[in-house]
Design brief:
Blueprint lengths: L1 E4 L1 H4 L7 H9 L7 E4 L3 H8 L3 E5 L9 H6 L4 E5 L24 H13 L4 H10 L4 E21 L6 E13 H11 L3 E8 L3 H13 L2 E6 L6 E8 L2 E8 L7 H14 L8 E6 L7 H11 L5 E6 L16 E2 L3 H8 L6 H11 L4 E5 L5 E4 L5 E4 L12 H14 L4 H15 L10 H12 L2
Parallel strand pairs: 1-2, 3-4, 5-7, 5-9, 5-11, 7-8, 11-12, 12-13, 13-14
Antiparallel strand pairs: 5-6, 9-10, 14-15, 15-16
Helix pairs in contact: 6-15, 7-13, 9-10, 11-12, 13-14, 14-15
Length: 451
């Protein structure tokens, strides 16, 4: 909580109006609340009763009227330099929805043409979002925790050619299949997550977040496997290197048996479900036997089965999802599947369609948007909606969830791609994974609807 001196109290030291100063302080990421100090500081402290009052170190040897007020109830007076390091932009509150509606007129025009070609308006998409609260899905995949460690570069070591950094802030976010499930739950969907966890504090953090986000978690513990933790060291608001604490080998036979048993129980009555999502980061947490069993049991049920098999620092295998009804690989993942390094995107998407017998294919292309390839063979491009990305991690997860839910709600692939792109636009507008809400989606759709 930060007190901002009123113009009257600050007197000749005022350079900016008190309301301008108050607004600037409130924008700071570490500030929960701020207020104008209009009375004596002793009265303010007696009313607020803070545990600690922090002042600049230049006040340390001066008279401090706060001290007497604090001594009445056991509060403490501390002094600091205000030196936290890092880039100032990392301390400004970020909100993906606030970056939208879109101001780039070219992007707006392209989006308008896309919706015109596929015969829908924003109101149609809002109705889709409203249906989510009546739906139920199961997510299979890898639990990952993402840790963002904001750091300051101190320089080069004189002993060797090593860059020396000083971490000053750490934030953890739920990632992997955990955030996929959390996005769905945040949108009102009854969501169950089936995954592997380790016996460690990272698993405890993930379970707490899943409960907070309203996800029903069915987690199988394998003590010899750590819960995946990906640490990103960021300097000046950019990630400079990552440390991944994880294993990529297959799960034990016992865990595989437990996963298959859970899956069998959860999909025993497909009429109670609307979709299945495989969020596969290829760290061994989704055995092929599980995939084949689920796809075989659901064949002919009409249930939407979406699969995302990621290849980044790890090797993905989209081919094990033959028979899924929807896939959204990156261009790299699609070329790895088809061994096609030369043909254009339309040909590439068609080859994915043929190779894994999947009627709905969307190639995700990062900042270039997505290419949509429907079962009819009709293709179209949709640009990335948010052209000022802050953090691209998690964009594919949010896209997967929204597009899958749209298909499960009866929308065609082109509407699904549009809503998925809206979700990705919100996600890349902030640092770290946070579940997307229906209110955020509607907010962006309102903005796109307005001229």
């Amino acid at each position: 909580m930060v007190g901002v001196n009123s113009d009257h109290i600050a007197g000749s030291a005022v350079s900016f109006d008190q309301n301008v100063r108050l607004s600037a302080v409130k924008s700071h990421a570490l500030v929960d609340d701020a207020f104008i100090i209009r009375e004596s500081i002793s009265e303010v402290i007696s009313d607020v009763r803070p545990d600690i009052v922090l002042k600049g170190r230049e006040h340390q040897h001066l008279e401090n009227p706060e001290l007497l007020a604090l001594e009445h109830y056991g509060g403490r007076l501390l002094f600091g330099t205000g030196d936290v390091g890092g880039h100032p932009s990392s301390l400004v509150k970020q909100n993906g929805a606030s970056l939208l509606p879109i101001t780039d007129q070219h992007i707006r025009a392209v989006l308008k043409q896309y919706s015109f070609r596929h015969k829908f308006v924003m109101e149609d998409l809002k109705e889709l979002v409203e249906r989510f609260s009546t739906m139920s899905i199961v997510v299979f995949g890898d639990i990952i925790v993402d840790e963002y460690i904001e750091s300051e570069a101190l320089g080069m070591s004189r002993e060797d050619s090593t860059v020396v950094i000083r971490p000053f802030e750490s934030r953890k976010f739920l990632g992997g299949a955990g955030i996929v499930a959390s996005h769905a739950a945040s949108l009102g969907v009854h969501t169950t997550l089936v995954a592997i966890k380790g016996k460690d504090s990272t698993a405890g953090f993930a379970e707490e977040k899943l409960a907070e986000y309203g996800v029903k978690s069915c987690l199988v513990e394998e003590q010899s496997r750590p819960t995946s933790l990906k640490q990103r060291y960021r300097i000046d608001n950019k990630t400079h290197f990552r440390v991944s604490q994880l294993r990529q080998d297959a799960v034990s036979t016992e865990c595989e048996r437990d996963l298959n048993s859970l899956a069998s129980d959860l999909i025993s009555d497909p009429s109670k479900l609307n979709a299945i999502i495989f969020s596969d980061f290829n760290y061994g947490a989704i055995p092929s036997s599980l995939v084949h069993s689920v796809l075989a049991d659901l064949a002919g049920s009409g249930l939407t089965v979406a699969a995302d098999s990621q290849s980044s620092s790890q090797a993905g295998d989209l081919s094990k999802y033959i028979g899924a009804s929807y896939v959204s690989p990156t261009e790299f993942e699609a070329r790895s599947l088809t061994s096609n390094l030369n043909d254009g995107l339309v040909v590439l998407a068609s080859q994915v369609f043929e190779q894994i017998a999947c009627p709905n294919v969307i190639l995700t292309l990062g900042e270039d948007g997505v290419l949509v390839r429907a079962e009819s063979g009709h293709t179209d491009m949709l640009p990335a909606i948010n052209q000022t990305a802050i953090d691209v991690s998690g964009a594919g997860d949010s896209f997967l969830v929204l597009s899958t839910l749209c298909l499960a709600a009866g929308a065609d692939l082109f509407k699904a791609a549009f809503l998925g792109s809206v979700a990705a636009a919100i996600q890349v507008g902030r640092v770290g994974n946070e579940p997307i809400t229906a209110a955020e989606i509607i907010h962006v759709l309102h903005g796109l609807e307005a001229n």
